[in-house]
């Protein structure tokens, strides 16, 4: 009975438990979190129901972040903590709130604008109060950002409001928010400002003769004729209720049968649907194979190009070959390609040459003269070479078969290659000094080292078994690697240029000058000097720079730890307004914050003690008040969110008293 009563009670209390949509935006997190918390406690929603609600409410990035958790029946609290870690970080929300405060426009003169401004400030302060963990509310720069957007009259009223509540321990920005809400409420009550949703008062429109004539022209009637027969399309081929282009019978016809049918029925060639004129049809052109003729795509006729195909040789194929060697200006590093000495053989004997092992080439190439020297012959086939911004055609290329082996091996390997006339590949040298590297010391120098070698054969990826590394040795950074292939060891990679470049000989020639030539040179140089023409160049110095230089020259003096220089004032007779009360009010705010946070008080006191111990600041004895330039400088502490635990002391030289700041008095 108790369970039945609970079920009836739940059925009696119908509630709306749907959650707002959350996509991962920063401004959506707080309302979404509050909705989950409040509805769960208010309607006693179970964990399974909350999980289902989260599946329906999460969209976009928020759903992607917890997609796996949503489908594994995870505890909803784990999902909410994950979402808060990704999208509800306090510092992110606070930074967005501070940016919104800074981007608010200056306050206007109407009561409605004042009310809107005050509400925005109140909302921002509410967010900061709920999520502030590092004392952002006590930052005086935040209050200054809002005060700079107020009118002079409101600033004056704020001064009276703040002085009456000087003893309160609340942050200054909270007091400012209450002040703005109070002023907005009074302005809306006693200035009779219209609400934001009320429509503006209707204005009487003055109609002129010209406007009346324009209205008469606009009111002219236009009659059109509509062909109702085209509204309900019917197929001209089978008279069914569909378009001709979708007719199954039409699809089975050949192109010639379709053309004969549309000509007979006088159907538009362009749309193949209606019987209007082709010149008035708005359908697009054919577009098949880039055809621009005014007919429908199903009426397109392909042109056979058998003659052009038959004219090409049947054996012609395009084979891509790519081998890049940098010939740019010399830099600090050089690049070594995979080159090794090899022996190639044919019917007429053997020849020693060098092979370039190029994994970027799709075929193997051999120099035509080199192949002829060993008697390699084969059928002639045209060859099309493709490279980086390069195309080349070899009409007399031959497909030959040769034998290749390394200089240290005796077993030859068959190799199919294409001949190419004047095969000019990258020239390269590997000196013996390179073998002093630790990982190359035990390799055979006579096999690896060579000087100004130019390959006569390029082994491509069609013979990958000769290119692939069987053993690899790697040194330190900027040192080449050594790979053992089927044809022998190869050194490749980057290396310092000075290890493979020879020392060039330089001849210095010195020719002694004659005395008469030197005298002539001095006379010409003296003649063309600027001072000889009566012109002297003097640098322009501004008045502020001139005063600063004069201040340094008059007041600089050496002390025990360095030099001391006076402040550069804008004028010699500078009178600063009294600033004691303003600085004292700022100091009391700092003391209230220190009373509320012992950690802040300890760090702040340490900063002041550091200034006094290093004699960057000294205690006043009271004689400074008689000076005309006496100024009490406020100070406050700031923290960088990116450097937690570090507090920095800032002297506010921009703080104004009676409209004047310390920065205004200095040049």
Task: Please sum up the structure shown.
The chain is 36% helix and 15% strand.
Entry keywords:
6-stranded mixed beta barrel; 4-stranded antiparallel sheet; alpha+beta; 36% helix; 22 helices; 15% strand; 667 residues; single chain; 5 domains; 21 strands
What would your notes on this structure say?
The chain is an alpha+beta fold and 667 residues long. It has five domains: 16-88; 92-190, no CATH class; 232-299, no CATH class; 318-499, Cathepsin D, subunit A, domain 1 (Beta Barrel), CATH 2.40.70; 580-665, no CATH class. Helices cover 36% and strands 15% of the residues. It contains 22 helices and 21 strands. The strands form seven sheets. It has a six-stranded mixed beta barrel with strand order 3-4-12-5-9-8. Strands 2-15-14-13 form a four-stranded antiparallel β-sheet, with no helix packed on it. A three-stranded mixed β-sheet has the order 1-6-7, with no helix packed on it. Strand 6 and strand 7 (390-394) form a beta hairpin. Helix 7 packs antiparallel against helix 8 (111-131) and helix 20 (580-596) crosses helix 21 (598-613). The longest helix has 21 residues, at 111-131. Mean pLDDT is 78; it is low at 200-206, 216-220, 222-231, 304-329 and 503-510.
Number of domains: 5
Report the β-strand fraction as a percent range. Answer: 5-15%
How far is the first residue's CA from the last residue's CA? Answer: 88 Å
Would you tell me which CATH topology of the largest domain applies? Cathepsin D, subunit A, domain 1
Profile the largest sheet.
Answer: 6 strands, mixed, barrel
Number of helices: 22
Q: Share of helix among residues? A: 25-40%
CATH superfamily of the largest domain: Acid Proteases
Shape: extended
Rg for CA atoms = 45 Å
């Amino acid at each position: 009975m108790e369970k039945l009563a609970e079920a009836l009670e739940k059925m009696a209390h119908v509630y709306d438990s749907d959650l707002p949509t959350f996509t991962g935006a920063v401004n959506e997190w707080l309302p979404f979190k509050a909705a989950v918390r409040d509805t769960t406690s208010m309607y006693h929603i179970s964990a399974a129901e909350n999980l289902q609600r989260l599946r329906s409410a999460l969209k976009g990035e928020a759903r992607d972040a917890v997609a796996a958790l949503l489908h594994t029946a995870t505890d909803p609290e784990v999902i909410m903590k994950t979402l808060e870690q990704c999208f509800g970080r306090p510092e992110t929300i606070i930074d967005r709130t501070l940016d919104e405060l800074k981007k608010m426009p200056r306050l206007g003169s109407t009561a409605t604008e004042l009310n809107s401004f005050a509400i925005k400030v109140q909302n921002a302060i509410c967010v900061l109060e709920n999520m502030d963990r590092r004392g952002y509310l006590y930052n005086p720069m935040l209050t200054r950002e809002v005060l700079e957007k107020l009118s002079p009259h409101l600033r004056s009223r704020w001064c009276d409001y703040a002085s009456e509540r000087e003893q309160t321990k609340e942050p200054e920005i909270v007091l400012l928010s209450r002040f703005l809400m109070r002023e907005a409420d009074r302005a809306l009550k006693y200035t009779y400002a219209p609400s934001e949703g009320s429509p503006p008062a209707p204005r009487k429109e003055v109609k002129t003769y010209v406007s009346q004539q324009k209205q008469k022209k606009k009111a002219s009637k236009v009659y059109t004729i509509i062909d109702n027969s085209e509204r309900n399309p019917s197929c001209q081929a089978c008279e069914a209720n569909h378009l001709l282009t979708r007719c199954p019978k039409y699809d089975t016809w050949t192109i010639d049968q379709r053309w004969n049918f549309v000509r007979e029925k006088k159907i538009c060639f362009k749309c193949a649907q209606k019987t209007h004129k082709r010149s008035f049809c708005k359908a697009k052109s054919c577009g098949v194979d880039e055809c621009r003729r005014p007919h429908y795509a199903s009426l397109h006729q392909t042109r056979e190009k058998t003659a052009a195909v038959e004219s090409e040789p049947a054996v012609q194929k395009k084979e891509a070959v790519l081998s890049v060697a940098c010939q740019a200006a010399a830099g600090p590093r050089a690049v070594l390609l995979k080159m090794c000495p090899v022996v190639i053989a044919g019917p007429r004997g053997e020849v020693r040459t060098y092979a370039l092992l190029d994994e970027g080439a799709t075929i193997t190439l051999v120099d035509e003269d080199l192949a002829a020297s060993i008697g390699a012959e084969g059928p002639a086939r045209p060859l099309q070479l493709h490279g980086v911004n390069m195309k080349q055609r070899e009409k007399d290329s031959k497909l030959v078969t040769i034998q290749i082996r390394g200089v240290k091996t005796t077993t030859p390997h068959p190799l199919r290659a294409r001949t190419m006339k004047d095969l000019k590949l990258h020239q390269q040298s590997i000196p013996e000094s390179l073998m002093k590297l630790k990982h190359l010391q035990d390799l055979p120098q006579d096999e690896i080292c060579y000087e100004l070698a130019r390959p006569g054969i390029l082994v491509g990826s069609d013979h990958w078994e000769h290119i692939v590394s069987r053993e690899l040795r790697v040194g330190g950074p900027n040192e080449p690697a050594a790979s053992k292939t089927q044809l022998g060891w190869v050194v490749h990679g980057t290396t310092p240029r000075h290890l493979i470049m020879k020392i060039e000989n330089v001849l210095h020639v010195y020719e002694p000058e004659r005395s008469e030539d030197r005298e002539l040179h001095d006379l010409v140089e003296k003649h063309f000097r600027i001072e000889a023409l009566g012109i002297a160049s003097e640098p322009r110095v501004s008045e502020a720079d001139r005063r600063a230089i004069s201040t340094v020259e008059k007041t600089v003096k050496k002390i025990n730890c360095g030099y001391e220089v006076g402040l550069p004032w804008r004028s010699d007779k500078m009178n600063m307004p009294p600033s004691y009360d303003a600085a004292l009010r700022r100091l009391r705010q700092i003391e209230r914050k220190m009373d509320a946070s012992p950690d802040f008080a300890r760090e702040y006191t340490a900063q002041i003690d550091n200034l006094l111990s290093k004699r960057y600041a000294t205690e006043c004895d009271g004689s400074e008040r008689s000076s005309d330039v006496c100024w009490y400088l406020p100070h406050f502490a700031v923290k960088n969110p990116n450097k937690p635990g570090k507090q920095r002391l800032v002297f506010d030289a921009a703080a104004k008293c009676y409209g004047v700041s310390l920065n205004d008095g200095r040049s």
